[in-house]
Specification:
Layout lengths: L2 H6 L6 H21 L2 H7 L11 H23 L6 H20 L7 H16 L3 H4 L8 H27 L5 H4 L2 H20 L5 H21 L15 H25 L1
Helix pairs in contact: 2-4, 3-4, 4-5, 4-10, 4-11, 5-6, 5-10, 8-10, 8-12, 10-11, 11-12
Length: 267
């Protein structure tokens, strides 16, 4: 959608509302990126050692990508791009995937995270008077993005179901179960199904959504390949899909970005 059209459709906000919107968006992004360790684990997850080493892929995926890339980063960007509704729609997708993933993993306590994500979403939509834009469809599905999303959806759905089963059936003494890591990975898999479909709607900000989705898949793919097995053993890191599937996740992420750029170039 042309940005000028998006601006025309946006209610004129007072300076006070614009300042509050941007300031709170930054604060919320810091809460999820630093307070909940989203951005932190994007960095430290690669270097965890000792007892924390077993959580490397979970830290990068369940926290770094799900929370850092898919929640904290769009909140930071929307502080300067208030008309990019798709960035706030990413939070809606995060809420949906959290509810579905937590239910599938039989992890009711983790549903609290959906309520936590709803706080910045409701707050920013209220301040920015963006409710009508939020539920409005974009320019329509882009067939290339839809095709790329659907090609990988069977894998991501199977991935999510497998992770949910590990959370649901795992012993309570398993540190991954205790820390809700499998639930977080379930949510990650579902997000990789829905985020590219959100981008394909071409709501203002869709291109950024596509880039964040692609980057998230690339990061997870690299983590899976790098941490395919523990050094000197055949034991896989918890949450890793190994070198082959990790490489395919990288390729798929780049395909998402490429499809978005192709569409943007023809608009």
């Amino acid at each position: 959608m042309d940005r000028s059209i998006a601006v025309e459709d946006t209610p004129q906000l007072s300076k006070a509302r614009r300042v509050w919107f941007s300031a709170l968006a930054v604060v919320f992004s810091l809460v999820f990126g630093l307070g909940f360790f989203g951005w932190v684990f994007l960095v430290t997850g690669w270097f965890a050692s000792g007892d924390e080493q077993i959580h490397r892929v979970h830290d990068i995926g369940a926290f770094g990508i799900s929370m850092g890339v898919f929640v904290a980063t769009p909140l930071l960007i929307v502080a300067w791009r208030r008309t990019d509704t798709a960035l706030l729609q990413m939070l809606g997708v995060a809420i949906i995937t959290t509810v579905i993933g937590s239910a599938r993993a039989a992890d009711a306590p983790f549903m609290l995270y959906a309520l936590i994500v709803a706080i910045p979403l409701v707050t920013l939509l209220s301040i920015g008077r963006g409710w009508s834009r939020y539920v409005r469809a974009g320019e329509g599905f882009d067939r290339w993005l839809v095709a790329v999303a659907l090609v990988a959806s069977p894998f991501w759905v199977a991935f999510a179901l497998g992770m949910a089963r590990l959370q649901r059936a795992g012993p309570s003494t398993d540190p991954h179960v205790e820390m809700h890591h499998w639930t977080g990975m379930t949510i990650l898999g579902l997000a990789f199904v829905l985020m590219p479909l959100l981008a394909s709607l071409r709501t203002p900000g869709w291109r950024i959504v596509a880039w964040l989705t692609g980057v998230g898949s690339v990061i997870y793919g690299i983590a899976s390949a790098v941490f395919a097995t523990y050094p000197g053993s055949d034991l896989p890191y918890a949450g890793s899909e190994g070198t082959l599937w990790g490489t395919l996740a990288i390729v798929w992420g780049l395909a998402i970005i490429g499809s978005a750029e192709r569409r943007a170039g023809t608009s």
